[in-house]
TrEMBL record, chain A:
Free-text comment on the cofactor: Binds 1 [4Fe-4S] cluster per heterodimer. The cluster is bound at the heterodimer interface by residues from both subunits.
Catalysed reaction equations from the record: chlorophyllide a + oxidized 2[4Fe-4S]-[ferredoxin] + 2 ADP + 2 phosphate = protochlorophyllide a + reduced 2[4Fe-4S]-[ferredoxin] + 2 ATP + 2 H2O
UniProt-recorded name of the protein: Light-independent protochlorophyllide reductase subunit B
Gene field: chlB
Residues of the Light-independent protochlorophyllide reductase subunit B-like C-terminal domain: 464-508
Pathway named in the protein's UniProt entry: Porphyrin-containing compound metabolism; chlorophyll biosynthesis (light-independent)
Domain Nitrogenase/oxidoreductase component, first and last residues per copy: 12-430
HAMAP family in alphabetical order: ChlB_BchB
From TrEMBL, chain B:
Protein name: Protochlorophyllide reductase 48 kDa chain
GO biological process: light-independent chlorophyll biosynthetic process; photosynthesis, dark reaction
Keyword entries, A-Z: 4Fe-4S, ATP-binding, Chlorophyll biosynthesis, Chloroplast, Iron, Iron-sulfur, Metal-binding, Nucleotide-binding, Oxidoreductase, Photosynthesis, Plastid
Name of a matching Pfam family: Oxidored_nitro
Domain of life of the source: Eukaryota
Boundaries of every Nitrogenase/oxidoreductase component domain copy: 29-162, 234-439
NCBIfam families given in the database record: DPOR_bchN, PRK02842.1
GO MF annotations in UniProt: 4 iron, 4 sulfur cluster binding; ATP binding; metal ion binding; oxidoreductase activity, acting on iron-sulfur proteins as donors
Length: 513, 472
């Protein structure tokens, strides 16, 4: 047992559900007790999803614990099959089913006979993998299932497209700025004259998965989800993949150069030409993206040598560290990730760009580290945002876990050339606001702070007795002042001089009426 | 048009495939309420992930709550439960020094059959802090019932009421009251301007955790009616738990603590006052009237007070009159809320509810029936353990003006042109007593008022290709 208040990555089934509900017309059925459909709330609230989340639970109650699920799982699968007619039903184990050790595979086999939908059991173990690993695994499992099926049915089409084309793998629901990144990646590929073959899992159809091998290569923008599927496709279909995250000026260029390498393996034979993306990279870097110019401007000069701490998932923390250190001249004192399973890769990526590399999923450790370093800015998750708030250090959010604020309706990619602009803004705003705060403190604060509010209380004619004083103190701080003013206003209007608890409530009733 | 009103309530029971919060979500409530407690949830990552998302920012404000996260070694019994738990409790004692540790069991501890109740007494002696065990697990309970299990466990810890000796331990009792209700006049407090004399009613304990500002309102309400409330379960501090025992009356303020009521009656020999719940002016009045009638005290001016509250609600009532509501059901407040809304002039199509304790809610159900009769509307069907999928199909037919639903369905329903109000807000808002009478209609009318201001912009259906109410 370990004591935990906060976790960075969620439990395994959340990853599976996120992948399953990203596909079109795929339904997930969890084997879980009441209340475990919480991921629906997250999707519906955080992503402001308009459609019902295609996830239901096959409820584990006392009866199930006593006698086993028996027909229940099978019935739930076949019922969903009739109601929704999904292409695929993903049966999802949870921590509960891990312990109760029911033979879910058997249920799935039986249900798939009775239903028109395909039915698979997500191959994830609650105690071995976290949300991100499970998402990666589930995506690979679905891809493999449909390619195997197509191969068996002889409908597999292995001939590549005439024009250069790519699959984007790993864009999914509740991913940090994934929707915007998806649009930006598409734009990048379009600029390069590359057609999008498929984007999975977000918005993809499992029926189309058999056409995945038609693309020339796969683009895997995030380290966490999609690599397993990409390596599977490479092994079985010889499809190359690009896994350099196009985040920041340097890495975006690097990603484009790798794309060029893969495209030029096929382009001379298929379309009789060799592609050269260097002019595009140069044009974008110097004139379209503002980030390269920003790093030369005197704004950014002022950031030179400022201390920062970075923490997040492997992809975003590594990219952000490289951007801060390599592209903006900021000193990254420490950069860490909670993706413990990918620690080796992470250390290699940030080597030479920072002083310390903590790999931990304990947020108190991260908090203590930040307190010790006292950086000028923090780039992290929601948790680090709160740590920054408490320590009064400016902060920017760069990675999951996040909340609803980080699902902005406005266009905010982190990837590609527009992404570099967004990141420049984020960094600039964090540091400048920090500078402003310091200056204000030195010069005695904003004068607006000193404005004497037109207070209604003169402390002369009104007295609060000790009970009402106590009652007032129980009211949360942020509304206390208002309640006090309202009560006094009411007391004055009614000619009351001694404010008792009764007066307080009478005031509340009168004013809200 | 005459409508036949059935005299009996109709109950239905569906599949139990509905969305609700896990009972451990109420941990948030308990630890905020009981200031010197520390809640330890023993469970897996799933429970932890849920609480951190559901509790949102509170979790990062140094909560008096933590997860004991079970690892593979715990499940396969390679590690000793007792030793592991002791290690964590000692750490909590060192870091926070609480007066009580509330140890919340989850589905995991149920399945691996961890003997929590057995371990607690031994552990308690070893570490020197009371350990209260509550099983708030998903297989057995829904959302607010989590609080019920905590309170029921607390009821065992309440000191014994020694009414037979005639003299209670006055100083301790006074202190408890003093802390809970600083305004209650006590003899030793000379400065109290006009001491109100209480009738000599037997001790009354109200159960259900309410925010402290709200908690003092029902008791000041009873004070107006000269009923003395010696205690609340839970109290602000664990050390101030009220006395229970033979001759003590208990009364619920919320519809969900039915286990607590049972425990108070059966184990602590208390007498339960079965009353409607003080939600809405009608409920509050009926609640006080019931308590008074039990104590044989005549009600004074209650009718006027209720009437006066309705007057102040007039602007809201104009908005809701004749509008229809559909409760999907997830927090057990549904019957009381529906009753109050019917009194407001609304039509309720369906009351979904996770669990209905017919005995504990008997008075509330009776009041609902009377309210329907008075308002001349048919009694809505009450659907226990509802099936969300079926409910959405029904809603598609009925097209209610308002759906009171969980957050999982709210946005999808709004996108299909059905106004929604998140049910969770009712569990956190201040909805009890006369003083808060405006808060329920405030919540209920919010989507309706939003509609008034967005007027005729013409974009209510916001889903691509009208799939209607398909679940997917």
């Amino acid at each position: 047992m370990k004591l935990a208040y906060w976790m960075y990555a969620g439990p395994a089934h959340i990853g599976t559900l996120r992948v399953a509900s990203s596909f079109r017309n795929v339904h997930a059925i969890m084997h879980a007790p009441l209340g475990d459909d919480y991921s629906n709330v997250m999707r519906s609230m955080s992503e402001r999803e308009r459609d019902f989340t295609p996830v239901t639970a096959s409820i584990v109650d006392r009866h199930v614990l006593a006698r086993g699920s028996q027909e229940k799982v099978v019935d739930n699968i076949t019922r969903k099959d009739k109601e929704e007619r999904p292409d695929l039903i993903v049966s999802t184990p949870t921590c509960t089913s891990s312990i109760s050790q029911e033979d879910l595979q058997n249920f799935v086999d039986r249900a798939s006979i009775a239903s028109d939908s395909d039915v698979i059991l997500a191959d994830v173990n609650h105690y071995r993998v976290n949300e991100l690993q499970a998402a990666d695994r589930t995506l690979e499992q679905v891809v493999r299932y449909y390619l195997d099926k197509a191969r068996r049915q002889g409908t597999l089409n292995q001939s590549v497209t005439d024009e250069p084309s790519a699959n984007i793998i790993g864009i999914f629901t509740l991913g940090f700025h994934n929707q915007h990144d998806c649009r930006e990646s598409k734009r990048l590929l379009q600029d390069l004259g590359i057609k999008i073959n498929q984007i999975i899992p977000e918005g993809g159809s499992v029926q189309d998965l058999r056409n995945l091998p038609k693309a020339w290569f796969n683009l895997v923008p995030y380290r966490e989800v999609g690599l397993m599927a990409a390596t599977y496709l490479e092994r079985n279909f010889g499809m190359p993949y690009v896994s350099t995250t196009p985040m920041g000026i340097v890495d975006t260029a690097e990603c484009i150069r790798q794309i060029q390498k893969h495209v030029n393996k096929l382009a001379p034979t298929l379309s009789n030409r060799t592609l050269n993306y260097e002019p595009y990279i140069d044009q974008q870097t110097r004139f379209v993206s503002q980030a390269a110019w920003f790093s030369r401007s005197i704004d950014c000069q002022n950031l030179t040598g400022k201390k920062a701490v970075v923490f997040g998932d492997a992809t975003h923390a590594a990219s952000m560290t490289k951007i801060l250190a390599r592209e903006m001249g900021i000193r990254v004192s420490c950069t860490g990730t909670y993706c413990k399973h990918d620690a080796e890769w992470f250390k290699e990526q940030v080597q030479g760009f920072c002083d310390e590399v903590p790999i931990t999923d304990d947020h108190t450790e991260v908090g203590d580290m930040i307190a010790r370093i006292e950086p000028s800015a923090i780039f992290g998750t929601q948790t680090e945002r709160h740590i920054g708030k408490r320590l009064d250090i400016p902060r920017g959010v760069i990675s999951s876990p996040v909340h609803i604020q980080n699902f902005p309706p406005g266009y905010r990619p982190f990837l590609g050339y527009e992404g570099t602009n967004q990141i420049a803004d984020l960094v600039h705003n964090s540091f400048t606001s920090g500078m402003e705060d310091h200056l204000l403190e030195i010069f005695g604060g904003h004068d607006t702070k000193e404005v004497i509010t037109k207070s209604l209380s003169t402390d002369k004619d009104l007295t609060w007795n000790s009970e009402s004083q106590l009652e007032l103190n129980k009211i949360p701080g942020f509304v206390r002042g208002k309640i006090k003013r309202n009560t006094e206003k009411f007391a004055r209007q009614n000619g009351v001089t001694n404010i008792t608890v009764e007066v307080m409530y009478a005031a509340k009733e009168a004013l809200s009426a | 048009m005459s409508i036949k009103i059935s005299e009996t309530l109709t109950f239905e029971c569906e599949t139990g495939n509905y969305h609700t919060f896990r009972p451990i979500s109420r941990v948030a409530r308990s630890y905020q309420k009981i200031e010197d407690s520390f809640s330890l949830v023993v469970g897996t990552k799933t429970c932890g992930y849920f609480s951190q998302n559901a509790l949102g920012v509170t979790i990062l404000a140094e909560p008096r709550y933590a997860m004991a996260e079970s690892e593979e070694g715990d499940i396969s019994a390679q590690l000793n439960d007792y030793q592991e738990l002791k290690k964590l409790c000692l750490r909590i004692k060192k870091d926070r020094n609480p007066s009580v540790i509330i140890r919340i069991g989850t589905r995991t501890t149920e399945i691996i059959k961890m003997d929590s109740e057995g371990m607690a007494p031994k552990l308690e002696i070893e570490i020197g802090i009371p350990i209260v065990v509550a099983r708030a697990n998903g297989p057995d309970y829904a959302s607010t019932q989590g609080e019920d299990t905590v309170l029921a466990a607390m009821a065992h810890r309440c000191p014994e009421e020694k009414i037979s000796t005639g003299k209670r331990n006055k100083t301790i009792q006074d202190q408890a009251i003093q802390d809970l209700f600083p305004f209650l006049p006590l003899e030793k407090k000379g400065e109290t301007p006009k001491p109100i004399r209480f009738r000599n009613n037997p001790p009354l304990v109200l159960s259900g955790s309410l925010p402290s500002t709200v908690a003092s309102q029902p008791s000041s309400e009873s004070k107006r009616q000269s009923i003395q409330v010696p205690g609340w379960l839970p109290a602000q501090r664990y050390s101030d738990l009220p006395s229970l025992g033979d001759g003590v009356y208990v009364c619920g303020v919320n519809p969900f603590p039915s286990r607590t009521a049972t425990t108070s009656m059966r184990r602590r020999k208390c007498k339960l006052i079965g009353a409607p719940f003080p939600i809405g002016p009608d409920g509050t009045r009926a609640w006080i009237e019931k308590i008074r009638s039990v104590f044989g005290i005549e009600a004074r001016g209650l009718e006027e007070r209720e009437q006066q509250m309705w007057e102040t609600l007039k602007d809201y009532l104009d908005l809701v009159r004749g509008k229809s509501v559909f409760f999907m059901g997830d927090n057990l407040l549904e019957v009381s809320l529906a009753r109050s809304l019917i009194r407001c002039g609304m039509i309720v199509y369906e009351i979904g509810i996770p669990y209905l304790d017919k005995r504990y809610q008997a008075a509330e159900s009776a009041l609902s029936r009377d309210t329907c009769r008075d308002m001349c509307i048919p009694m809505p069907r009450i659907v226990e353990k509802p099936d969300n999928y079926n409910q959405i199909q029904r809603m598609r037919e009925l097209q209610p003006d308002l759906a009171i639903t969980g957050m999982a369905h709210a946005n999808p329903l709004e996108a299909r042109g059905i106004n929604t109000k998140w049910s969770v807000e009712f569990t956190f808002a201040q909805i009890h007593g006369f003083t808060n009478a405006r808060d329920v209609p405030e919540l209920v009318t919010r989507p309706l008022r939003r509609n008034n201001s967005l007027g005729d912009l013409g974009w209510t259906g916001l889903v691509k290709k009208e799939e209607g109410m398909k679940f997917n």
